[in-house]
Amino acid sequence: MKSGIEIYKLPKEVIPTSKGDKHIKEIVLVDEKLKPIALTLWGDFADTEGSEIVNLLNVNEYPLISIENIGVTPFKGISLCTKPHSTVTINPISSRAQQLQKWAVENRPTLDALKICREYNNAAINLAIPVVDEISKISEVPPSIDPTKPVWIHGKINLQLEGDSLWYMACSNCLKTVYADSDTRFFCMHCGTEDAIATPRSRANVSITDTTSTIEASVFGQCVEKLLLMTSKQIMEVELQGKKASFQYANKRLDKEEYIVQLRSQSSTYQTNPGPSYTITSLHDASHYIVTTNIDPSTPPSSKMKLPHSGVEDYLSPLPTTSITPTIFLELLF
User: Fold this and answer.
1) What backbone phi and psi angles, to 5 degrees, belong to 331?
2) What is the largest CA-CA distance in the chain?
3) Which residues form the Replication factor A C-terminal domain (predicted)?
4) Which residues pair with 88 in a beta bridge?
5) Cβ distance 130 to 262 under 8 Å?
6) Is the pTM of this model over 0.70?
7) 330: helix, coil or strand?
8) Which of 108, 127, 191, 255 is a Cys-bridge partner for 174, taking CB atoms 3.0 to 4.6 Å apart?
9) Listed residue (170, 136, 117, 125) closest to 306, CA to CA
């Protein structure tokens, strides 16, 4: 069972399938860990519970939802979806519900800020924060990772620059490969978005090394941009100018840095090599964290931090105490 606070409804309401168009509602959930998760309500759930949720969101309420017997997919991090036999309850009555509702009331400014900043669009990258017990040695990473339990590791990253291009043209909604010129609008045959935009998206293969072993993984989008310190469009332009070799500078810099990395098993759709294959879904500069093995729970939380974001007047409440404390919290959000 999954419980969470709904903060926003995503715009898509129809998905084309082999059996015709299906009505959906996509809702963004968060809990005390501030890790947004997308929930897709299908069919009757979209029409009934989904409509009730939207009505509550429209009057600036943040309703609580509880879902049993749900589907889990690793797309864009962790996503949830209803199944024919799912049970969806809005504002349930239970001790867990009371705990979440109390937290939502106390952290209303935080929820408002997340909603305004739309940070959940990159939730898997920016808001995923491991506790120290979740960080594994590379030698302990299993050949196949449970999609509901991604693995965190800590090590040095090296970009593998030989071979494939470091970018591809993607649908702005589903991120799948499309054949269109950059910034043009089109109907996406993959996801059914009528006004999708052809958007350059970066991709790369990397090796990650700690004191126990080395592992290879694929990395996409904003994570590649963090490593190269360039936007995907800039990466595309450099390659089109025949200057891909200039990216070697990045490995010299990365050799002096360490990252905390979240791994998932790569989808068979994208897997081209035999044996274990992984995708990086989140990475953070390890120097921005203080890793500790014990934290006094009586330690008072830090003062509230103001979001340096145009038009946002709210204050962001501190994250729950964990064994990894972000020393530069805004790095996680922006």
Assistant:
1) -60, -30
2) 61
3) 160-285
4) 67
5) yes
6) no
7) helix
8) 191
9) 117
Give the per-residue pLDDT at 253. 93
- Tens digits of residue pLDDT in 24-38: 888 878 777 666 677
DSSP state of 301: P
In whole angstroms, how far apart are CA 250 and each of 106, 194, 227, 254, 331?
43, 38, 7, 6, 20
Percent of the chain with pLDDT over 90: 26
Distant-in-sequence, close-in-space partners of 207: CB < 8 Å, separation ≥ 6: 157, 158, 160, 214, 215, 216, 217
* Residue 197: Cβ-neighbour burial (10 angstroms; 0-12, 13-18, 19+): middle
Please state, in angstroms and as integers, the Cα–Cα distance from residue 330 to each residue in 71, 86, 168, 260, 289, following that order: 32, 37, 29, 16, 12
Q: What are phi and psi of 71, to 5 degrees?
A: -95, 145
Token reading at 303: 């003062």
Q: For 237, list phi and psi in degrees, rounded to 5.
A: -65, -40
Which SS3 state, helix, strand or coil, does residue 47 take?
Answer: helix
CA distances from 60 to 112, 138, 331 (A): 9, 44, 28
* The two structure tokens encoding residue 267: 């989808």
Residue 217 has pLDDT above 80, yes or no: yes
